[in-house]
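Hi R.,

Quick one: here's the ABC transporter permease sequence you asked about.
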Amino acid sequence: MNFFRILIEEFKAVFSNGTILLIVLGGSLMYAFLYPTPYKKDVIRKQQIAIIDMDKTNTSRELIFFVSALPQVSIEYVLDSQKAAKDLLLENKIFGYLVIPEGFESNVHKGIPIYLGYVANASYFSVYGTIVEGLNNAANALGDQIKIEMKMIQNHYLVHEANLLTKDSIPLFNSSIGYLNYALAAVLIFILHQTAIGGTMLIGAFQNYENNPDSYYIKASSLQLIIARFLVFGAIYFILFLLFFGFFFQMYHVNIQANWLDFWCFAFVFIFAILSLGIFLGFLIKDTSLPTQIVLVSSLPIVFVLGFIWPSDLIPDFLKYLANFIPAYHGINGFLRLNQMGAHLEQIMPHFFWLLALGGIFSSFAYFYRNRKIKRMKN
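And here's the predicted structure, written out as tokens:
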């Protein structure tokens, strides 16, 4: 059968199947638009809190003033009891509260350690961290001011104490210290990985279910069919890569530092690996509902072993070993180094060669499995 004819038939089979288009195009684009929506502001600011002032002194009011000046929090209520604050917390009207204990001012001037109560909803770990960080900054600022006032009262000269170590925070690879550059850059790549595997599995599953002996996918040789499938899905994902890295990354202000030649060399080998895996699995599956189930069920476990959401040091060694056989592991780690960290291709060659090897292995499996299947059908 003529290869050009096979290519046209493969193109028609993909673009006439609504389920495949929904997964490949609809899934990719919907996730790219909808998933980042809650994180568009990137850095968490102005979280609603309450303050319980049990001291009601000038010093406690000064602390409240420092807290009100913070960008991280917004004081919604000043209360007299913790019960009222807990009720507001349970109703999600606030996300945390600060307790200023009775005797706060007198203990400050006596030099007695004071314990401030920070309470925040740890179910939202980013919100919790933001509130605690802000309240801690306010308490430290007040403490520094009180030290200066005490020295002035005692007629001590104000001298700048020499710090042996000074902190100069430089957030490498994530200048906003926000969620988008931390996780979204990896999640968008993972979306492409899952939809590509899902789409190529679906076309194989539909054809196995139909199993029409007069169709092009039975008459074509294994090599012709695999190459045609690579070309059709490869063209789709070439466009999606342009859209994701050229448009969505810019729209969400995700860092892009990769050299364009390094980027496309790595992108093509990543596409080769994920399509090879999807094509091979598609030849194995006859149930047309199974590919979407595999993609959905596997997504969360795979995300955790990739090492960007859950610390890689806490992942068991055998899972890290198995992760090497998932194209997403090498693709995401490679793209993060290229795009976010400004690495060159030669610095991520282990990931490059792993993807090349996985693509070769999975496509070989697909070729030999289909050959064997066609021989059984003829016999």
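The first strand starts at residue 47 and ends at 53.

Cheers,
M.
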